[in-house]
Amino acid sequence: MQTYPGYSEPYERALRLAATTHRQQNRKGCDIPYITHPFHVSVILLRHGFPTDVAIAALLHDIVEDQGYPLSQIEDQFGPCVAEIVAALSERKTDAQGTRRPWEMRKREGLEHMRNASLEAAAVKVADTLHNARSTALDVRREGPHIWQRFNRGPDQTLDYYHHILQIARQRLHDHPLVDELADALDDLTRLTDETTHP
Known about the structure:
CATH class: Mainly Alpha
Number of domains: 1
Number of helices: 10
Strand content: under 5%
CATH architecture: Orthogonal Bundle
CATH topology: Hypothetical protein af1432
Shape: globular
CATH superfamily: Hypothetical protein af1432
Structural class: mainly alpha
């Protein structure tokens, strides 16, 4: 039986960086600390056997986009593989004039990046979407369909975006168990949404 080290110093450094960088940030529309999201994304990837560098990129995947952390510093601290993944997953939220760019434009660009980025970056995007779908389903079950008001778009557009991610995941990662897990999560969230918002 193959064994793995129980402690990783680079992972610990990445976890501390993510936790401190996201310290003032909560999950959208609630008081849950944001760090729960990248941490769970990294755990999903570790459970599916991805290497530590991919899990580290998962921990850091939102610090450039949400907190303006310099990508060059990520490369200096964790190497080019981690930096490439984070870059592929970082949306450009504002234009050159500082105006917020439309949600639809940003999501189209994100899908295109997923098509062309490394397989590791695609896997992080799948795990990211998996956690978002599962946590949204948990919130709908606990609090009701009004939780969709937290999102930039309603359930129909959000689910359509998630299903585009699944479609690209099938093309890039084929029948990987992570992709199957995302498919199950989206089936569950779609069914729950139909039951609660389209009675």
